[in-house]
């Protein structure tokens, strides 16, 4: 039973990191940089299978887009040609990922709760 709790716990940690990355992406979706500067890079989480019964691990990664170059000559950050750079982040995609990450976290939390209940029931049998 403790394996189930540790595996689900690693899943919860993975989904929490995924939720943090999505929140960071949404918060910076409209971050403007100068036309010559690099745009905010989308935060990604790469899930990998752990060793044996250890669950999953999460590694952070960055997107590889250059961002969107937009002509805004009145923007204070515009380069000499009048361009600024926005991140290439699709908010509707981020919201879909947010729902998936939230549901994954909830599912792993339910596994922990059920394993805890089963463990408590086994302790009651031993006492009785």
From TrEMBL:
Protein name from the UniProt record: Flagellar basal-body rod protein FlgC
Keyword rRNA processing: no
PROSITE patterns listed in its UniProt record: FLAGELLA_BB_ROD
Flagellar basal body rod protein N-terminal domain segment(s): 7-32
Domain Flagellar basal-body/hook protein C-terminal positions: 81-125
Family, similarity comment: Belongs to the flagella basal body rod proteins family.
Keywords attached to this entry: Cell projection, Cilium, Flagellum
GO terms under cellular component: bacterial-type flagellum
Gene Ontology biological-process annotations: bacterial-type flagellum-dependent swarming motility
Claim: Methyltransferase is one of the keywords in the record: no
